[in-house]
């Protein structure tokens, strides 16, 4: 099995390096944003709040983004979203460099960037199938995750060095420039090379996607598992910030290094996943989530910065193997006519818990301690995965050929 076969598609070859540049910029800004808030306030609660604000639009708008994906031209929609993200990053970077930035500016632009991302994400996810076709979709998802985590390996380290040398401003401007790469690549794609299985449907309704998911216990089980994993387990942005500064008393460079160290494991998981494309069943997702919860709990007991850093790649690898399988399974088992809207629901669940969980986790970290909060989050992640597995056991191997028409017909019969 060729783990790099998606590169045979011209459009994928054009978009992939541009996505790498864009992802590096995104991770550089995330590190700078958290560090900027910590500089202004010195509070983990505010770090959690700004992360929550950035992901709040995912809770509010991801399903609308999925609807847009099924209704309109995906490439044009992505160009608009990336242009909006670039404007947001540029403005915040200039405010920081000119020393006019206030806390409310960070909150506002975190929300603005989150709004563009909330529309972009389900469109981009469903656009992948049009770039490489269904046969190569699992491979493309794995390679895109490797891309994202290669950027996670590079971005935080670069941002940490920039912050240490020049402050947080250049990291925001780096992200702004990175948007130019992705916009240029999107403009260079050839429409005739796209694998478009269904024409845009101006009558697409979100309610149809809810009916579809409700009728699919395999997809429902994965989405519930992903919700708890993402909301309580995937909080390294908060945990690393507070562990580095409050527990181990480290500076910006060490904090940035933690992000890069975590990405080593995540990148490894993504590359392994490209060779394990058949591991796309719900039970695999739940077992992976349970194991990830155990690792998060163990990390809470790390006695030194070095040991904590050594444990991060393990958690990153397990998390990526689990979430890539979840993403691929949902896309492959969903009918193309409704894929955008289903991915909108998936991303609402995946990212939508963050606006609720991040402020709570930030507050708990300040109130009961960072280590204690990590332990609680690990236990919740583990327990949820086990409960979902036994609740849906025997009902989660639904055939992948389950189509939109089957669901709609059943829905109308039950009225």
Automatic annotation (TrEMBL):
<dbReference type="GO" id="GO:0022857">
    <property type="term" value="F:transmembrane transporter activity"/>
</dbReference>
<dbReference type="GO" id="GO:0005886">
    <property type="term" value="C:plasma membrane"/>
</dbReference>
<dbReference type="Pfam" id="PF05977">
    <property type="entry name" value="MFS_3"/>
</dbReference>
<feature type="transmembrane region" description="Helical">
    <location>
        <begin position="342"/>
        <end position="361"/>
    </location>
</feature>
<keyword id="KW-0812">Transmembrane</keyword>
<dbReference type="InterPro" id="IPR036259">
    <property type="entry name" value="MFS_trans_sf"/>
</dbReference>
<protein>
    <submittedName>
        <fullName>Unannotated protein</fullName>
    </submittedName>
</protein>
<feature type="transmembrane region" description="Helical">
    <location>
        <begin position="35"/>
        <end position="56"/>
    </location>
</feature>
<feature type="transmembrane region" description="Helical">
    <location>
        <begin position="77"/>
        <end position="97"/>
    </location>
</feature>
<keyword id="KW-0472">Membrane</keyword>
<feature type="transmembrane region" description="Helical">
    <location>
        <begin position="103"/>
        <end position="123"/>
    </location>
</feature>
<feature type="transmembrane region" description="Helical">
    <location>
        <begin position="172"/>
        <end position="189"/>
    </location>
</feature>
<keyword id="KW-0813">Transport</keyword>
<feature type="transmembrane region" description="Helical">
    <location>
        <begin position="308"/>
        <end position="330"/>
    </location>
</feature>
<feature type="transmembrane region" description="Helical">
    <location>
        <begin position="284"/>
        <end position="302"/>
    </location>
</feature>
<feature type="transmembrane region" description="Helical">
    <location>
        <begin position="219"/>
        <end position="240"/>
    </location>
</feature>
<dbReference type="InterPro" id="IPR010290">
    <property type="entry name" value="TM_effector"/>
</dbReference>
<feature type="transmembrane region" description="Helical">
    <location>
        <begin position="252"/>
        <end position="272"/>
    </location>
</feature>
<feature type="domain" description="Major facilitator superfamily (MFS) profile">
    <location>
        <begin position="1"/>
        <end position="396"/>
    </location>
</feature>
<keyword id="KW-1003">Cell membrane</keyword>
<feature type="transmembrane region" description="Helical">
    <location>
        <begin position="373"/>
        <end position="392"/>
    </location>
</feature>
<keyword id="KW-1133">Transmembrane helix</keyword>
<dbReference type="InterPro" id="IPR020846">
    <property type="entry name" value="MFS_dom"/>
</dbReference>
